[in-house]
Design brief:
Quinone Oxidoreductase, Chain A, domain 1, 10 helices, 17 strands, globular
Length: 343
């Protein structure tokens, strides 16, 4: 089988490997779609997100996949061969309170596919059966891949921010995650203000449903948000751009007792806690991935609304062209790039 590897800095190689055998409690997945993520680019540029060691160069990246169950390992009972499944990216201890509640992403022993173990940018992968998320018949494979990291994270964020038809949310950053946030927030019925300095991204934001698009390079976005909301400020904001300016604007633009959801990875930031946080009595919520038990609810939401996640897929490639796909995605000129496999 073919598998993409990141053997050294800013280098992608596609290699031949044996098809893996599923172990006890595992299944073999024949991949159908696997989306590139900004986190893949951290590995590509040599930046650590998790505690990776030198062996990481041998690990196949990819943590936003879906495919078809090809083979069952010993003791597998909950999925069967031929099942269409999306893949939950988190591996936990399986016994702590967080794992038992489905919040695997906060387990102390959390590991991520594509970082700790071989991921999905390959023809096949093995995964514990509990990481298999059964896809509705109406969900295509590209949507299935995008429904996990993008869809699941932003669906959960919209719930945490209590969005509905009476709320206005400002989304800072209109890359893949921000665009997914626009789609999900509109699904919840909210009025959406999209903020980005890239006019092409703002054009897509309008196309997929944003009610207002603002470019902070051309005017004071916070002031414009206050004007749109009759001087009150937005009910909520979502930060999908990993920089200090985006976080500060998100804090500044919400009204008193508003809610801010932080999604973008950001190792440091400087804020004004007294004026932006305490005296406004706002809630700042970390929004990272989704509870595994929410998948059925999430999948039904995507199918029934419907949430057209495929609109944020800019380009598709076979895994044999992984180097080209990585370079394009790294350019920042596109939205989601997805590896696909045809029958």
């Amino acid at each position: 089988m073919l598998a993409a590897k990141l053997p050294k800095l800013e280098t992608v190689e596609v290699v031949e490997e044996p098809i893996p055998e599923p172990g006890k409690g595992e299944v073999l997945i024949r991949m159908k779609a696997s989306a590139l993520c900004r986190s893949d680019l951290h590995r590509y540029h040599g930046t650590q997100i998790f505690d990776e060691d030198e062996s990481a160069c041998y690990i196949t990246p990819g943590h936003e996949p879906c495919g078809i169950v090809e083979k069952l390992g010993e003791g597998v009972t909950r999925v069967k061969e031929g099942d269409r499944v999306a893949i939950y990216l988190g591996l936990g201890c399986g016994t702590c309170p967080d794992c038992l509640k489905g919040d695997v992403m906060v387990c102390r022993d959390f590991r991520c596919i594509g970082f700790a173990v071989n991921g999905a940018h390959a023809d096949y992968m093995t995964i514990p059966e509990e990481n298999c998320l059964l896809m509705p018949d109406e969900m295509d494979f590209i949507t299935g891949a995008l429904a996990t990291d993008v869809g699941g994270t932003l669906y959960t964020a919209c719930k945490k921010l209590e969005l509905n038809g009476t709320k206005t949310v400002a989304i800072f950053g209109c890359g893949p995650m921000g665009s997914g946030g626009i789609l999900m927030a509109k699904g919840f019925g909210a009025r959406v203000i999209a903020v980005d300095t890239d006019e092409k991204r703002l054009a897509l934001a309008s196309e997929i449903g944003a009610d207002y698009v603002l470019n902070p390079a051309k005017g004071d976005a916070v002031a414009q948000i206050r004007s749109i909301t009759n001087g009150l400020g937005a009910d909520a904001s979502i930060v999908t751009a990993g920089n200090n300016a985006a976080l500060n604007s998100a804090l500044d633009c919400v009204k008193a007792k508003g809610i801010v959801g932080q999604i973008a990875e950001c190792n440091s930031a400087t804020i004004d806690p007294s004026n932006q946080f305490l005296r406004k009595m706002i809630d700042l919520k970390g929004c990272w991935y989704f509870n595994r038990s929410d998948w059925e609810e999430l999948a039904e939401f995507i199918v029934n609304k419907p949430i057209e996640l495929k609109k944020i897929c800019s380009n598709t490639y076979p895994i044999s062209e992984a180097e080209t796909a990585f370079r394009l995605f790294d350019s920042g000129k596109v939205q989601k790039v997805v590896f696909v496999w045809d029958d």
